[in-house]
Amino acid sequence: MELLIAQTITGVALGALYALFGIGFGLVAATMGILNAAQGCYASFGALAGLFAADQLNLPLPLSLLAGMGFAALVAVAVDQVGFQPLRRRGGGMLGALIVSVAVWVMLDSLLGVATRQPGRSFPEDSYPHAVLRLGIVQVPAMQIVAVLCLVLVAVGVSRVVTGTRLGAAMRAVGFNAAAAGLSGVNARLIAMVTAGLGGAAAGLAGVLAGITSADVGVALGHGLMLKGVAAVAVGGPGNVRGTVLAGLGLGLLEAVGGRYLAGGFGDVAGGALLLVFLLLRAREAPGFAGLTRA
Amino acid sequence: MDGLGDLWAAYEGTFGLAMVNAMFALACYATLAAGMLSFAAVIFGAAGGFLGVQLVLHTALPLGAVMLASGLAGLAVALALGAVLVRLDGKWLALASLALVMAMREVVLRVPALTGGANGLSVPVRLPLGWLALTLFVVMIGYRGLFHSWYGIATRVQRDDPTVAAGLGVDIGRMRLVAFGVSGFTGGVAGVLLALLLQFVSPDTFYVHLAFTTIAAVVLGGSYHWLGPVVGAGVFTVLPMLFQWLLPDVQDVAEGAVLLLAMIFLPRGLVDPRVLLMHLTVAQATRSRDRSG
Q1: Can you give the pTM of this predicted structure?
Q2: Distance of alpha carbon A37 from alpha carbon B39, whole angstroms
Q3: For B196-228, how does the pLDDT look when each residue is reduced to its tens digit (9 = 90+)?
Q4: Fewest CB within 10 angstroms: A208, B36, B152, B287, which?
């Protein structure tokens, strides 16, 4: 029983990372129609920046988290302006954007590979709290609480911004129809940059948090987050913060609790399979099937 | 003459790799020409590759039979995945296939009996380049036939406008599944050829980088004519070698940049029938004007 509770808590903390990543990915997908395959690299870059802040500059945890978010956001905005802006200006299909994002992914992964030549980079022991909270019979490591707290802050913050501010209204307008939004005075390019930055920051935050618990901060970290985060978005729906959070937590729980019954390490496979199953269930039917519409 | 022989010896491997990449690019083109961006050719390649290597290692089948079996393995996987994937909206299809490539690596790692696990499998058989060239030639003839067939025309129509295609009585779901089947067979054969060419397969052989090279070759070459992927694969095999020599540290960055630039400045690729047709029409018009004037 205690083991199950402990695993549940671990699962929630793990799921919080997937949900964090998913919120960023979904925000970009809903506002700009881009499924950005390079989003996982932003997480790796964020983790690396956080590691640099904690290891070289000896900054406390909150500042390391901010450093990771800031750097990832910077990379995301740069990629958006260099890679995606030309496609938007030409008005090309968003399949092209996906190809561009794969190109960016390969480039960033390669740069990361150069930056992390020697394996086994991990956060120094004294850079994050190790305290274990005792709540009755269960013990909760402090970092898991930090992860969940971060998720709550980001989820509430993002849904507040999207539904309750002028910025959010502009983002939704661009997501619905960028040309029409531009006609009614929204600076679509600025909104794209802000959205990319927010998405990158969320990925970076997830990256630093995942990096703290991982023994090797590098390329693989982003890949793992990407796979599960995208699954969470596919289940929850892009732009649907609540759905993404629930799906991410569910995925984390499944991995932590189910991991006991599955042969170890099948988490990624389960993530991939789940992604496919849910995409199918929620499939926006391809043109030519039932959903055929014409203006 | 000796110099030419040396040159051939030095670049024989590159030439073989270009041909295998062309096969993978054609497999990817089969789905992209039907309007579906899919990275699944890599998965079909893995199915064909690992099965083919097992057959080579444990049976005495001739090479042709092994290739056929690999193609059929790719076809089976493609039809199974395709039945699911064709129902998805374009962007999600692409992303789902990418996620499947990532998840597949974990599966491959977990069944070492079939795949050799993380260490991979060595193949003691050497692939004669003549075989490779012949196979590519046959596949290209096949794609040319498909391109000019009713199937090819229907595929292009439904890529440009699914509504018109459906109105003309084209069964879009079936067309797309056929596209996956073609992709699967080609990918399966390409997989075993790659394995035999490298004389080694591992989970990393069929991973994101192959998916990237494949899609880059199709985008650069053009997905509107069957010759596009072949040309693109040639360029995208030579280019990395060049970068390896010029910029060894950031070779992948340079490759990514090429794909990015191709996407921005050459969105229809190098081989574009529309441009060719335009040139032909202009040339014809000039000629007839000269004749009359």
Answers
A1: 0.85
A2: 12
A3: 999 999 888 898 889 988 998 998 898 889 999
A4: B287
